[in-house]
Amino acid sequence: MKIVLRNLTKRFPNRNKKEGGFVTAVNNFDFEIPDGKLVGLLGPSGCGKSTALNLISGLEKPTEGKIFFGEDDVTGLPPEKRGVGLVFQNYALYPHLTVRQNILFPLQNLRGTERPSKEKMEELALEAARMVQIEAYMERRPSELSGGQQQRVAIARALVKRPRVLLLDEPLSNLDARLRLQTREEIRRIQRETGITTIFVTHDQEEAMSICDLIVVMKDGMEQQIGAPQEVYDRPVNLFVAKFLGTPAVSVFEGEVREEKLYIGGNIPVLDVPGVADRPVTAAIRPEGFVPDTVGTLFCVLNRIEIMGRDTSVIATNSHCLNELNTLRAIVDTEEIDEGRMPGSNIISFRLKPNKTHLFDPVTEERIPFGAVPAAAKKTAVPAAAKKTTAPHLPDPVTEERIPFGKELSEKKKSVKHHEG
Ligand SMILES: Nc1ncnc2c1ncn2[C@@H]1O[C@H](COP(=O)(O)OP(=O)(O)OP(=O)(O)O)[C@@H](O)[C@H]1O
Ligand SMILES: [Mg+2]
């Protein structure tokens, strides 16, 4: 079921009596949510995500505007007539009812011709329980389940009436980190299997990016950008979106364009930016956009290197970096760090990847596009096949302990010799 929002606005009387007036929680939403997709509503706390969801479910009435499910205008319909399934952060299960009774509850509330037979209800409840893989716990009470299992029951309860639309408001926030990862994959699977148009509210960009077909980025009640996660990550429409997506976040610099070249302080350009007129700019660079390189021209003071599993972070300082303490964070290939370091000094130089560098107007903060990468810059890029690869791991099939091989062995020998000597 496609969801169409037309000029949808919700104003609340300000809770802060001193300030008075109104708070616009949702400001003129005007977009469509395509049928059968998993859509993430993403933004910082207080930006209006829950209000938007409550408008769609019917729990809140809009101040202005309309909501359509497919061709049906549902703006005036109460929640129970909209065919929506709702799941909240705190599960909201009935503690005195078993899992089975909790899932049955929405069906037992149906009246007249809508009410299925007893057998049919049991059948639908079991089907919903199977969908979320909770059927082994049907006779338990919520207090006898883990948080993740309780949230699955809540999802089953939302699915049992076969809703046209499934609405999830921060459904993973009460779960620990591992369960959160697992449950979000579950939500993805359930959405795929049922094909129900689903809106998933979260303030966690990684969560939204990892499972959603589309994300809607919000700020102060306003939609900022809608698109596939990768699309929004690769082409943020404004500085807010660039900063909000991605961990670690972009590093932001005060810069200037002269003769289609980007300068960040100094008189040596750091990047070609074809098609941009001479002007001041704000440059936001993804952590993976910095490449340590002796021919690089963004000079920084190296503060420290952090190696965490797969990632190697370089933390460095540049006086034009607008981040806290002028500190930028780059994620680099471990083998490449030394390629940007000047022997005997703590200076590191970076080359910038053009597709990881975004320019914005310093005043409006809107995106300034720039042209294709010139052929010369492309040539210097290392072809994928020539990239250094790290050795794979070879565990013993029985003890599961590491079996060293190749270079590692000779290094081991060396260190043994060292010990002996
Ligand atoms: N019933 C209400 N009365 C007055 N103001 C409200 C009401 N509900 C929400 N607001 C205000 O509307 C704005 C949006 O609130 P909303 O709960 O939709 O944000 P949110 O994005 O869901 O935030 P969070 O991530 O913290 O859940 C906030 O400024 C909030 O204080
Ligand atoms: Mg909320």
Textual characterization of the structure:
This protein is α+β, with helices and mostly antiparallel strands and 421 residues long. Helix content is 24%, strand content 29%. The chain is built from 10 helices and 21 strands. It has helices spanning 49-57, 99-108, 118-131, 147-159, 177-194, 205-211, 229-234, 239-244, 375-380, 407-420, and strands at residues 3-13, 22-33, 38-42, 64-69, 72-73, 84-87, 165-169, 197-202, 214-219, 222-227, 251-258, 261-263, 271-272, 279-285, 290-292, 298-308, 311-317, 327-332, 347-352, 357-360, 367-368. Strands 6-7-8-3-9-10 form a 6-stranded mixed sheet, with helices on both faces. Strands 13-12-11-14-20-21 form a 6-stranded antiparallel sheet. The protein is globular and about 80 Å long. The chain starts with a strand and ends with a helix. Residues 373-390 have low confidence and may be disordered. Bound molecules: adenosine-5'-triphosphate and magnesium ion. Adenosine-5'-triphosphate is lined by residues 12, 15, 23, 25, 43, 45-51, 203.
